[in-house]
Predict the structure.
Amino acid sequence: QVQLVESGGGLVHLGGPLNPSCAASGFSLNNYDMSWYPQAPGKDRDLVARIYHFGGRIVFADSAKFRFTISRDNHKNMVYLQMSTLKPEDTAVYYCNASFGQYNYWGQGTQVTVSS
């Protein structure tokens, strides 16, 4: 059974760090581009970070540049998002996504709440 399971969300104070992770099962991440998409209430699910399967190229939304890092461990079938200097506007459910051609998988999301 193909699954993506996020964990590591939670409540953090303004300016603090949080490091959610995403565990894949039922398939190998090796050929997949891996991404994180936050979705705040009433808003669209927008890309915040992506790490490509080939060459490890990384892209970030402007809002995440210099604050977030994305990494992957293909041997452990894991993807990580390291967030720092968090702001209230970062509050959202963060979804992990795996994409490869016609294949597109989503996790159930992990809640990140930044208090001011």
